[in-house]
Amino acid sequence: MTPFVLLLGFAAALGDLIGGAIVATPRHISDRTLTLLMALGAGNLLGVSVIELIPESIKEVGESAPLYILGGYLLIHFFEHVFAPHLHFGEETHANSVIDTHVSSTAILGLALHAFMDGVAIGSAFIASPALGVIVFAAIMLHKLPEGFTIASVMKATGAGRRGTLAAAGLLSIATFGGVIATGLLSNVAGPALAIATGSSCMLAPRTSWRRRIRNSGSSIRSWCSSVSVCSSR
Fold first, then answer.
1. Nearest to 154 by CA among 81, 102, 206
2. What gap in Å lies between CA 127 and CA 105, rounded to an integer?
3. Looking at per-residue confidence, does 151 or 127 come out higher?
4. How far apart are the C-alpha atoms of 159 and 161, rounded to whole Å?
5. pTM of the model
6. How far is the C-alpha of 173 from the C-alpha of 171, rounded, in Å?
7. Helices of type H across the chain
8. Structural domain span for residue 136
9. Cβ distance 124 to 183 under 8 Å?
10. Interacting residues of 24 by C-beta distance below 8 A, sequence separation 6+
11. How many CB atoms lie within 10 A of CB 174?
């Protein structure tokens, strides 16, 4: 794996830490801006997944690619609903529900899996094609800040201080970079890894934006941002 790929993987990993730092500061990003950023990132990630990653996965893996994609989708679905059922992307709104260490631990576990698969997507995409790698990196980078917002907000809801909040965001950064490194070390399975990461992205991207948009209904701008992001991925 080239230093350039490692540099981009490190940059993506920093996105989680930056997102966490924004929420951890007394004055952070407004709810409206956060929602628009999430819509933009989710639409871009979904567009890249459908238009670029699914065809490339089929090209790399062949007829078994749909099974790997489905497996990645179900893996994230399983972790979300079994281990972190109260987790929402963006700033956590269920402050009364997220109050114990068990919930925060499962949130970290679930988001660490998301982050690891982000790293796998970046690494495997670069192995398949440098051009595809850059596209996937850009899409995931837009998605990284909301991921950092989420874990930082969960930690704040548990009463964690600034240090604990940043530590949780740092763990997601490590998971992201670990996914890039793992894919580089296991380059012989880059095709299946790309397909699994594609499935996880297809699961995560719509839920990142649409669930929050429902909770903040009444704005058509978020729908427009998601649609423009999908179209711009073509």
1. 102
2. 33
3. 127
4. 6
5. 0.74
6. 5
7. 3-24, 31-48, 54-61, 65-82, 101-128, 130-157, 162-185, 190-215, 221-232
8. 3-232
9. yes
10. 152, 156, 162, 165, 166, 169
11. 16
CA distance 30 to 105: 26
Which helix H or strand E contains 216, and what residues bound it?
none
With a CB cutoff of 8 Å and minimum separation 6, the contacts of 10 are: 177
- Positive/negative CA dihedral, 205, 207, 213, 216: negative
Q: Give the separation between CA 118 and CA 87, rounded to whole angstroms.
A: 18
- Structure-token match 């595809």, residue found: 132
| pLDDT > 70: percent of the chain | 70
What pLDDT does 85 receive? 56
Distance CA 201, CA 54 (A): 10
Residue 26 reports pLDDT greater than 70 = no
| Residues in the chain, overall count | 234
**Region 180-195: what's the mean pLDDT?**
89
Per the structure, the count of domains in the chain is: 1
The Cα 98–Cα 138 span in angstroms is 32
**How far apart, in Å, are the Cα atoms of 82 and each of 70, 123, 171, 180?**
18, 28, 21, 26
Distance in angstroms between the alpha carbons of the first and the last residue of the chain: 27
Token pair belonging to 104: 């925060």
